Amino acid sequence: MKMTYVMGASGLGHWVRRLQMTLSERENQLALRKAVGTKSYAVRRDELQRYGIEERNYFSIDPGEPLPDAFFDGLDVVYVASPNEFHKAQTLQALEKGKVTVTEKAFATTRAEFEEVVREARARGRDRVTLGLHYVTKTLTMELGKMLPSLVKRYGKVQSVVSTFFEEVRDEDARRAWLFKPENGGVAMDWIHPLSIISYVMKAERFSLQDCTPYVIQEFYDSVNPTGYHGRFGVKGRHFSQDAVAVVRVGKGVREAHKVFKVRLEDAQVELLYISTDDEFLTGSRGKMVITEKGGKSTTVSPSGPLSYEFMIDDMLRMLKGGAPMLSLEDITKIYEPEWQIQRGLASAKPVRKRDEIDEFVSAGLAGRL
To answer: What is the pLDDT of residues 1-14, one digit of tens each?
Structure first.
């Protein structure tokens, strides 16, 4: 009989909901049995009962309060999916308790605290912790990684990357106003995904920030902090031309969802047309890749494969058995280097609030302009 490992989650947002949906199809290899949140069990009863979490295994704490010792009892894995400002303390706590740990998106929201977590992780066993960066393991992204060497050989090196990740107005984001606050890393840390693709999947070795502009797209999300940004980098790496650039546009509360990752080679263009993770669950589709040659010939690739949460579960199981996660601490440190540049740039820039300038930013993103 196969052993079922036990997991506990700090935070109960859409990350945990999606992970639980995936766990239910994994033949009891890993079970979510405990959780920590800031609301009472009574308030979250329906959700927690769907997950199979009993009242005695749910721990309600005040924001910033340490995770209770009783939460860790009997756990094999801790999944940290609370607001980013709590990730450092909770990740370190889980490591101190000797638990395999997967932290969603960010170890910490400043470079100094991030590096502190990495040092501690190395000291306690580098193969016991990793980050959940789910766009890296989306089937469409992994298809790009597999095809990129042959695409570069056939069509020449990468001249530019234009990444536009816009999300439509959503009640959920209006309720999660905390994610735009500097102490949580803001919108740039919430949407680190394009940088993770360029760094890890496309093997970029070095980024140099050339321009950075924050935008207050939706004031009812946050009237002070940016809810979108534009960043432009010079990029170096074996697949990139000498003067290659990467443009990232991220925005929450835009009039329509638009998630397109465009790679321009010397003699072709490759577009990754992403769909939402929820749509991947519902439809079975994984988005499309469109390759357009200079002469106009177009080829569409519709890859099939596992959901990104499958890879997270595989990472957990591999670490539990003494193996290494897919993303090493070195990989994660490299992915975050351009993020720290963006954070520094956004901190020193005045957010754009004029509607005509915001509309131009959105139009440029929808058109995929450099």
So the answer is: 467 899 999 998 87
DSSP helix/strand/coil, 300: strand
Q: Which residue has the tokens 């519902």?
A: 282
Alpha-carbon distance values, 94 to 10, 36, 89 (Å): 10, 13, 9
Question: What letters, b where the CB count within 10 A reaches 16 and e where it falls short, cover 127-161?
Answer: ebbbbbbbbbbbbbbbbbeebbeebbeebebbbbb
201 in Cβ contact with 141 (< 8 Å): yes
Q: Going along 142-257, which residue ranges are E strands?
A: 158-168, 204-215, 228-237, 240-254
Distances (CA, A) of 122 to 7, 119, 161, 278: 22, 5, 33, 35
Distance CA(67)–CA(78), nearest Å, equals: 11
What's the distance, Cα to Cα, between the start and end of the chain in Å? 56
For tokens 């939402």, the residue is: 276
Q: What is the structure's pLDDT at 2? A: 65
User: pLDDT tens digit string along 34-82?
Assistant: 999 999 999 999 999 988 999 999 999 999 999 999 999 999 999 999 9
| pLDDT for the residue 338 | 98
- Domain annotation for the chain: domains and CATH numbers: 5-132 (3.40.50.720), 139-308+336-367 (3.30.360.10)
Which pLDDT belongs to residue 67?
98
* Positions in the chain short of pLDDT 70: 1-2, 27
CB-based contact 166:249 (threshold 8 Å):
yes
Structure tokens at 73: 């009892």
Pairing relation of β-strands 77-80 and 100-104? parallel
The Cα 143–Cα 308 span in angstroms is 13
> Residue 198 has what DSSP assignment?
I
CA 259 – CA 276 distance, rounded (Å): 8
Task: Give this prediction's pTM.
Answer: 0.95
From residue 235, give the alpha-carbon distance in Å to each of 173, 185, 343, 347.
31, 23, 18, 22
- Phi and psi at 32, nearest 5°, equal -80, 115
Mean pLDDT of the chain: 95
Distance CA 4, CA 137 (A): 24
